[in-house]
Amino acid sequence: RVLSCGLKDFCAHGGAEAAAAATAGDKRVPKIASVVGILGHLASRHAGSIKQELLRMFHESLGSPREHHKATVPFLLQLALMSPALLATVSPELVDSLKPPVLNQLHQHFSAVPRDELEGVVGVVVHLLCHTSAGALRTLRFLLATAAP
C-alpha cells in the first residue's frame, strides 16, 4: 500500500518535477521522502516482501499502457536514488530478470518518451550503477554481455 500510494502521489505531482522538488526538500510536493522513510523502517522485518513488490511493480508496468504505469519506472528510480538500501535490496534480482523479452518491453516502454526526458532517465540509471556495490560484478557482466553478446 505504501508503494501504491507513493506512485499515485508521484503521478499526481508530475513525476520527475515532483521528484526533484522532494530531493530539494520541498515539503509541499510528493510524499516520496515519506515513502522512502516508511520502507526503510519496514525493511528490517519485511525486506523480502518489499523486494518482491518492487520487482512486481517494475514488471507489471512494462506491459501496461495505463498512465500511472508509465511513471512506475521513474518512480522506482527515484526511490533508488533516495534510498541506497532499497537499491541494494533489489538490484541483483533486477539484473537477473533483464532477459531479452524484458529488455524489449523496456525499449517499447521508453520509445515514446521525449529525448530530453530519456536522457534524464539514462543519467539516473548511470548514476545508480556507479553508486551500487551490491551485485556490481553481476551488473558489469550483464552490461558487457548485453552490449556485445
TrEMBL record:
Coiled-coil region: none
Superkingdom to which the source organism belongs: Eukaryota
InterPro entries: INTS5 (IPR040316), INTS5_C (IPR029444)
Domain (Integrator complex subunit 5 C-terminal): residue spans on this chain: 31-147
GO biological process, alphabetically ordered: snRNA 3'-end processing
A GO CC annotation given for this chain: integrator complex
Signal peptide from the UniProt entry: none
Protein name stated in the entry: INT5 protein
Organism for this UniProt entry: Cettia cetti
